What does this fold into?
Amino acid sequence: MARLHRLPLEALRPLLVEVPHPRTPAWRELSATSRPLSWPELFGNDRPVEIEVGSGKGMFLINAASTRPETNFLGIEIERKYALLAASRLVQRGLANVRLACTDGRWLLEYGVASESVQAIHVYFPDPWWKHRHHKRRLLTADFARHCARTLRPGGLLHFASDVAAYFEESCRLLVEAAGLQPVTMAETSDGAYLSHFERKYRLQGRTIYRGRFLKAR
Ligand SMILES: C[S@@+](CC[C@H](N)C(=O)[O-])C[C@H]1O[C@@H](n2cnc3c(N)ncnc32)[C@H](O)[C@@H]1O
It folds into this structure.
């Protein structure tokens, strides 16, 4: 991906979703009063919506939104510098079917996404937070897994990838046992197109990549 610096905020605004961020003082009040996002209001059409949680520098969103213009994509990224960098890349490509929210994906999925309103959820290479005392920072918790299942439409898919075998196994268990999703495919992979920036980075380092797809039954 070509190197690109952040564009001015004004240029990014049409793509950014106004949502509270956990590091803002008004977070608690805003959390209490927030309502689910309206996809037709956000995208200006009724096309299916897919969400990526932890979109980083935006490689998955760029590829997915440009190859599938009939689908809307919402990226959620908690780190402002990555969200703004990804937004700059998306704006440069003139993609009309993608939006970015800079906030905690666990919070947005719980409070900002209506039940059975999403066609697919993508979670690629979430930080494993190795130390036991840091596990509470993990993205893929039982609650998060349940909100993925709640917000997916029947027939919708959750796509998950990680380079950490133990975290992958634990997450798969939560998605199936806590959230009731059905495993569709499980694979170790070292070839094919790169899904995301971190997949490229880890495969170039020779690491094994674990990928799973989980279905919400009809
Ligand atoms: C290891 S990076 C992977 C980025 C991208 N998915 C990829 O595969 O290239 C994890 C990303 O998730 C973001 N992240 C971590 N916790 C998050 C949360 N609760 N909500 C949204 N994003 C989060 C991090 O800021 C980081 O950009």
The beta strands are 16-17, 49-53, 72-76, 98-101, 118-124, 152-162, 182-189, 209-215. The domain at 11-22+35-215 is CATH 3.40.50.150 (Rossmann fold). The chain has a mean pLDDT of 92.
